[in-house]
Predict the structure.
Amino acid sequence: MIQAQEEREYAILFIQYMQNNNLKVIFESIDKPDKKYDSCKAPVLESLEHEQYITSSINDIYTN
C-alpha cells in the first residue's frame, strides 16, 4: 500500500509540473497485457527491465 501511495504522489508531481509549464496532460487507456510466462522468474525480470526503462526516461527528463 505504501509503495502504491508513493507512486500516486510521484504521478501527481509530474502532472503538476506539466500543468505549471503549460504542457498538455493526456491520459490514454492502457490495454490489458496478453502475456503468458514460462516461469515465475520471467515476469520479475520483465518488470525489472521496465523499471530500468522508466528510470532512464525520468533521468532524460531532468537532463534535457
User: Anything to note?
Assistant: Residues 2-28+35-63 form one domain. The chain is about 65% helix and 0% strand.
